[in-house]
Amino acid sequence: MCDGTVAAEGGLAGAPSACARIRRVARALGKRSPSTLRISLRERFVPYFAAILACWSLWVALTWPGALRDDTLAQYLQSSDIHNYYTQHPLFDTLIFGLFWHLGDALGSPLTGLGLYTATQVVLLAAGCALALCYIRKLGTPRWLLGIGLVYLSTSYVVVGATTTMSKDSLHTVFFLPMAVIFVEAALTRGEVLRRTPVACWFALLVFGSVASKRTALLIALCSGICLVLACRKGRRLRAAICILVGILVAQCVFAPLAASLTHANRSPSREVWGYITQPIAQIAHDNPSAISPSQRKTLNKIMDLDEAAANIRATRTNETFQTLRTDPAPSANEKLAALKVWAELGVRHPGEYWKAYSGPIRGWWDPRVNFSYPTDADYLFSPGYLRQWSSYLTAPQYSGDSEEAKERSLAQITRDLSPLMGTSNKPQWKKSALNHVRTWVRTDNPLTSMALYVTWIPLLTIVSLAAQAALRALRRRRGVAGDAGEGDAVEGERRGMWPLFAAASLLVFTVLSLYASPEALFWYPIPVYFCLPLFTALPFVRAGDEIKRQPAK
Fold it and tell me: By the 8 A CB rule, do 372 and 380 touch?
């Protein structure tokens, strides 16, 4: 048994034993250093920011000037007047990307604009990560947890790889990460922090940026916002609700219509939610077409092309089925209701096919064997297949028609139009070799690049930990133990103590649920989750009762 001092054979009597040294290290790592956010920012923001930037700098150098997502190239076609603006992708993102591309054009090349965007995004994301770490330190979490968070944000591939991608998901994270910090603090202080006008204004502004930059953020903000309002003290609920509603309303009712009007954007129909209807129906039509009666088929064909959906269905995504929905003319409300009735009837009779249809698109969110790698340049978007896809964006009369001559003209024109963006894969050999080694490492049965680890299992462990604490508090309350809260706060701490923590975690929960509701498990979608995980995994380590007595961040 280790007593801290033993005389080692042949050594000095009374020398500290290995067990004593281990205990000292454990105490140091487990030590908590709660402080105000102002002090934490003053003492730690610059070191955290510098450490993160230093670690990211190698990846920035390898991938410079950055990589594009496929949707981003479609946004380039809009901002370059090659195609009309449309609302399928947030105009907020398209206009910001366009600002950098136009700036790059003024300096000689849109790739210069891409590099400027990459540098700006890297700096803002590093600042957001440093802010999150300072806030985690302010909460008084153990040092070992803070250290893991710093290492994760500085070196994890799922975080670092996203920093140099020009995508709406990375841009959304620039706003979502600091918004999440204020959201958590507002929940833990039960709205007290929002009494400060600058904090409330920043919160509303970041909610606006989050909602304007990603369509699914609207529902996330509404659902988690309700939890936040309920967690606030009665006198603070109105202010919290106003902050959230102002951000949402300005994004949806002011900016979106104004941007659409100024850009003359075509309104894109929102059809993704219908994937829950079209996917299982197409699955039955593909596997067991006789299960659908002629009358049911007639009803379904009024809202979709059932044969095309059955022929093109893919197990891992719903795009091929919901894209067969009829839009010209659009089905009536009665026709949609009749189709929903058929969908329900088929689900009752064929639950196995429905399970097969629904489980395929979400597999990547829960299966640790599914991993991914980020693109490291934009040239993969200029393959022959992609160029044919981009050529369909040309709508001038000379490019219309199905003749081979028209297709060749459109392909040659789109190649000329996109040539300023080509060449990002022309890197020195040492960069290519390094990137190939990274790509091999991340794609070879590597659990650290599994989306499921960050989307499902770590968040689930966080929620289970909070639930276990809630169960323990309930047990202590039944036994009449006041716990860590002071005598005056004991009853309130035991009765309401966990709700602020659950309200804070609701932002993570609804973000994850939005991923499970997406058309496919695409690695771009969880980027905000990757960056915010250290913030939410710190919640189970907030001391019992602290959330009742906590003073708002200063």
Answer: no
